[in-house]
Amino acid sequence: MIKNINFLRKPSREKFNLFFSIGIFLFSLGLIDVTLNSLFDVNITSFFPRVLNYFTPLIFGFLGLHYLRIEFSGNKMLDKLNTNINSNWFNSILTLLIIFVLIQNIPPLLNWLIIDANFVGTTKEDCTDSGACWIFIKIWFPRLMYGLYPNTELWRINTSFIMLITLVVALFYIPIKLKKYLIIFLIFVFPFIMFNLISGGNFGLEWIETTAWGGLSLTFIISIFALILCFPIGMFLALGRRSSAPVTRYSSIGFIEFWRGVPLITVLFMASVMFPMFLPDGVYMDKLFRVIIAITLFEAAYMAEVIRGGLQALPRGQYDAAKSLGMGYWRLHMLVILPQALKLVIPGIANTFLALVKDTPLILVVGLLELVGMIDMAKTNPDWLGFATEGYVFAGILFWIICYSMSRYSQRLEKKYKTDR
Amino acid sequence: MSEKIIQMEKVNKWFGDFQVLKDIDLEVAPKQKIVVCGPSGSGKSTLIRCINRLEEHQKGKIVVDGIELTENTKDIEQIRAEVGMVFQQFNLFPHLSILDNCTLAPIWVKKIPKLKAEELAMKQLEQVKISDQAKKFPGQLSGGQQQRAALARALCMEPKIMLFDEPTSALDPEMIKEVLDAMVNLAKGGMTMIVVTHEMGFAKEVADEVIFMDEGMIVERAETKEFFANPKNDRTKLFLSQIL
Ligand SMILES: Nc1ncnc2c1ncn2[C@@H]1O[C@H](COP(=O)(O)OP(=O)(O)O)[C@@H](O)[C@H]1O
Ligand SMILES: [Mg+2]
């Protein structure tokens, strides 16, 4: 019977059981080979020549997947797998490589992150296992969140952020009529409340220098202010660049090209070192303010170009129609053009916002310490030398969570506003 | 003179070196219906787009409803609010529902209260027989429905003059009639209309006068019956023989 089967031909569904068993057997052999090889240092195929036995898992897996590729097998699971990850020999190799890479890397990673990691204790000496020393993060956690802000005043930061979150959540649940006012409050009033609460100086609150601010809360403060400010500025720059008035157009172009041409680090240095020299004597502007303004203008230039892309995508007919209904420049743009253009460039806007959040650690160069800056400080503390990896992994995970949520949110917005042509 | 609602005197326009309009003289009385025809590229669109200043003319004089068209933006916006326009490509606002398309300008330009604007819009949508589509978005409608919605949107501004730029040219044949019917109804209601179209049946039914344009000039202008029965100019004859 075996003679009747051409092993290199397509497996047929008449001999389903035979092909299925051979396929599964070979595929499992490949998996076992990799697992033993990479996790237990055992090589079951060492009797093959060296060059060959390095590739044996791939060869076994490849043949296995070949025999499993039974068209219209009648088995729903198998058909689905075949069409998705095993539709031809190229895809089957990709599938195998991905599986093998995961097998090789996930267990050691889990070991380091969780299984062999140290969670209990208060000092460096408590980190006895071979994995990560999360005690480092635990002990430094308040500093990583709040910087050098005095411990007794932490409630002020907490209150501001809880208020912010409550207001933003409320935005989704209150009636549409009130929404407008809440948004105006959030954008124009709330930032000042938040700023006053955190910096103090009024209402009997102790004044706390912005140099003491830091950690993740500073990341958020800078990001939120810069995000809120850079959006409208970018919008006006984009409109300005398309204006028919030469003065407006050329100043917009000049502004955009200037900020796009300078590295952020330079901008930050200029904001902290050079900018004060231009201020009249006796006028003082806080370093944090200057940095927020610098980041805002920097990102606004990028925002402007993103929005301009959206404006250019709109057909002339939209302008004609709006004009023919008697709309002037501002009504035409606010009611007809911008809503459509912004909708088109939601992915680009999200991109710029993400870049902004991820650029905040650069404020390190002017002596402001947000999350990454605090980690830099913690890792050089004589009591805690040698835990840089834990710190950066922690920062990486936090940044990833923040950015991924923003990205998801932008995708939701995209779907929501999709009215389609 | 003063009873004319549109007056164009020696209007000239260039796109760069290319002269699109050459010494156009045109007068339109209130309630008059005029059909403009002519070969493609002859300047028909440019002519009617000059009337609400979607295009600027460089020489000559255009007076609409007693207001001369100049650089003055206030005047231009006022004229545009009084002159409705329907385009070949509909140009509905795709981010707004049909109803919102119709109420946007009345609310923001004429400052009509929202509820009243919606009432008016529904009336106009009923006139063009698509009031049941009011909540949908333009992308969900057929071409014929979209064009009727565009007509309703223009009418919601209660214009004194309506301009049409080949309103049926982008439509499938079976949808042309529904749009033309809506336009005929509008004509019967006494609207002043200038219509660029090749639908000669429509011209015969509603037009008071027909204008034939070629190479940026008005070659012939005559009363409708006369225009079709006795075209004077050779180019007109040739054109009519091609499209009839
Ligand atoms: N924005 C423009 N820039 C340059 N040339 C144009 C522009 N619009 C129209 N034209 C030219 O002007 C001429 C007349 O155009 P148009 O008024 O659209 O003609 P019609 O509507 O009769 O087909 C055409 O030759 C066209 O190529
Ligand atoms: Mg045309």
Mean pLDDT of chain B: 92
Number of strands of chain B: 10
- In the residues of chain A, how many domains can be counted? 2
Biggest sheet layout of chain A: none
Strand content of chain B: 25-35%
Q: Which structural class do you get from the secondary structure elements of chain A? A: mainly alpha
Give the distinct bound molecules: adenosine-5'-diphosphate, magnesium ion
List the strand order in the largest sheet of chain B: 6-7-8-3-9-10
Bulk shape of chain A? globular
State the separation between the terminal residues of chain B, measured CA to CA: 35 Å
- Radius of gyration of chain A, whole Å: 30 Å
What general outline of chain B do the C-alpha atoms trace? globular
- Helix percent of chain A reads over 70%
Q: What does the oligomeric state look like here?
A: heterodimer
What this model shows, in words?
By secondary structure, chain A is mainly α. Chain A has 2 domains: 2-115, no CATH class; 135-149 and 208-418, Orthogonal Bundle (MetI-like fold), CATH 1.10.3720.10. Chain A contains 16 helices and 1 strand. In chain A, helix 11 (287-313) runs antiparallel to helix 14 (346-359). Chain A is globular, with a radius of gyration of 30 Å. The termini of chain A are far apart. In chain B, helix 6 links the parallel strand 7 and strand 8. A 6-stranded mixed sheet of chain B has the order 6-7-8-3-9-10, sandwiched between helices. Chain B has a 4-stranded antiparallel sheet with strand order 2-1-4-5, covered by helices on one side. Chain B has 9 helices and 10 strands. Chain B is of the alpha/beta class and 244 residues long. The interface between A and B is medium-sized, with 22 and 32 residues. The complex binds adenosine-5'-diphosphate and magnesium ion. Residues 15, 20, 38, 40-46 of chain B line the site of adenosine-5'-diphosphate.
